[in-house]
Amino acid sequence: MRVFKTQVNPLSEAYQANYAQMRALVQKLESHLEESRFQGTPEQMERARKRGKLLARERIELLLDRDSPFLELMPLSGLGRKEGFGAGGTNVSGIGLVAGHLCMINANVGTRKGGSVDYHTVFKNFRINEITLQNRLPTINLVESGGANLPDQARIFNYGGANFRDITRRSALGIPTISVVFGNATAGGAYVPGMSDYAIFQKQKAKVFLAGPPLVKMATNEETDDESLGGAEMHSRVSGVSDYLAEDEQEGLRLAREIMGTFPVQPPFFVPREPVLPPVYDAEEMLGIVSADVKVPFESRELIARVVDGSQFSEFKPEYGRTLVTGWANLHGYPVGILANNGVIFSEDANKGAHFIQLCNQKNTPLIFMQNITGFMVGKAYEEGGIIKNGAKLINAVSNSQVPALTLMIGSSFGAGNYGMNGLSYQPRFLFAYPNHKIGVMGSEQLAGVMEIVQRESARSLGQEVDEAKLAMMKQMLIQDAESKATAWHSTAELWDDGLIDPRQTRHYLGFALAVVHQHPFEGAQGYGVFRM
Q: For residues 357 and 366, what is the distance between their CA atoms, to the nearest angstrom?
């Protein structure tokens, strides 16, 4: 492959201005990530220390193999939501190595609202379960939770059972779940260890029951206490809900590692064997290349050159469909097919993208989508040229592709362009976003403009005068509302991505994700739905 020749001038005024803006966005991201690592007030943490408890992130650190990376997922779920418990919710979730196995790890933050599960934490768990199943990852739950947050119960009750369902479905596929219980696991939370393949309870600390002593008293008039009703020793010696009785937290974590060690470490489906070359160009330059303002276009090839091995990129159909860049590269030694936007999608781009996806499926090559897209081209000439049927070909190819796909939001993601470039609803294995990212049906000004036209037409058809002052005010309010809901901060809070990342870390995030997807065999699609010709 040829090394891409950069055209970037780091000394230019435009580069320097954009670098400063992107750096400010990254600093804001770093501030929010620091906020997400909150594990309780100093008083709450001191109380936990006095009880001999470790904090959630300390448990993860002790569980992981020495020097294992940890890919934390959705750390900013619930960011800024007044009704929630803060960024990240009440659990820490991510992927790391335990006894040589890549595992999904979920740790309740017991020092944050007792680990109670709020609305955003429930939906974070759903996405975690989806990633776990897609990638066939063993799961280790570090449990200390009071169950559902009761003020949220009306919003989460009907959804919460899916977590237990997914544990058992993974078990049926031979994908194990281990739960280590360090404290409360009450009501529905009792089913997390109850449905796990392996359950470890900490002596004198684990309390697992469907109803605590007060509710038992109310329901049956029976007098009982925590320990005899649902203590670790009772469940280990009498009920059989617990498989292992741990003396303390350290032993509980050791037992989890021991259990994972009983599974043979299978060699990954594919391991890069050639020497891995770093990119020729400095990742720091990505802050000057990726536009802080998504209205300003930038060359996606310059981004690709700072992510892939040796900055080498074999472009497919470079002269056709020029607003969609497609081609092959290696990333940390893994072969990948890349689709990256360089503008709005025309019919030629859609056809080229569908063709390229088919080729990658034929070669069993994973896909990386880099989204910076305002949508499919509109207008009379483009409708006559078949933009709908050609766009449908691209969406068909994305929908029926069987090779693992990763999606990276590097700018705009508007309209059906989100679908054609493998948005969240198309189940990418992982989806990460930059802090400049904007998402929506359309841009805020376009949305407000369309609504203005509709309102003027409605008034005209009714023979009414337009209240210009009122219309202007409504238009401005609509722009402000759409702008706030299109930001990366809003989308990550609503779990529309698996995490916002510093662009300079792109290569590491994608490399880790590729290592995960290559743990098990995959095979490209053998057929597709009907392509409208």
A: 9
State the angle between helix axes of 119-134 and 153-172 in degrees (0 to 180), rounded to the nearest 10: 20
65-88 pLDDT per residue, tens: 999 999 999 999 999 987 777 898
What are the distances in angstroms from CA 380 to CA 19, 162, 375?
39, 46, 16
Query: What would the pLDDT profile of 187-231 be if each residue is shown by its tens digit?
Result: 777 889 999 999 999 999 999 998 888 888 888 989 888 899 999
CA nearest neighbour of 63 among 265, 256, 264, 262: 256
Residue 243 carries which side chain, given as an amino acid letter?
D
Q: Please say whether the beta carbons of 363 and 403 come within 8 A.
A: no
Q: Record the tokens describing residue 447, joined without a space.
A: 């949305």
User: C-alpha angle 57/60/62, rounded to 5°?
Assistant: 110
Contact 308, 279 (CB under 8 A): yes
Strands 367-373 vs 324-331: parallel, antiparallel or unpaired: unpaired
Q: Where do we find the tokens 């000394």?
A: 11
Residue corresponding to tokens 């999608």: 345
If DSSP codes are grouped into helix, strand and coil, which group holds residue 503? helix
Give the pLDDT band (50/70/90) at residue 263. very high
Helix orientation angle between 56-63 and 249-261, rounded to the nearest 10 degrees: 40
Total-model pTM: 0.92
Instruction: Give residue 150's pLDDT.
Output: 62
Q: What angle do CA 307, 308, 311 make, to 5 degrees?
A: 100
- Tell me how far apart the 2 most distant CA atoms of the chain are, in Å: 81
Q: What are phi and psi of 236, to 5 degrees?
A: -80, -30
Do the bridges between strand 207-209 and strand 198-202 make them parallel or antiparallel, or are there none, so unpaired? Answer: unpaired
* Rounded-to-integer distance, Cα 410 and Cα 424, Å: 14
Residue 76 DSSP class: T
- CA 211 – CA 386 distance, rounded (Å): 61
User: How many other C-beta atoms lie within 10 A of the C-beta of residue 161?
Assistant: 11
Query: 411 phi and psi, to 5 degrees?
Result: -170, -125
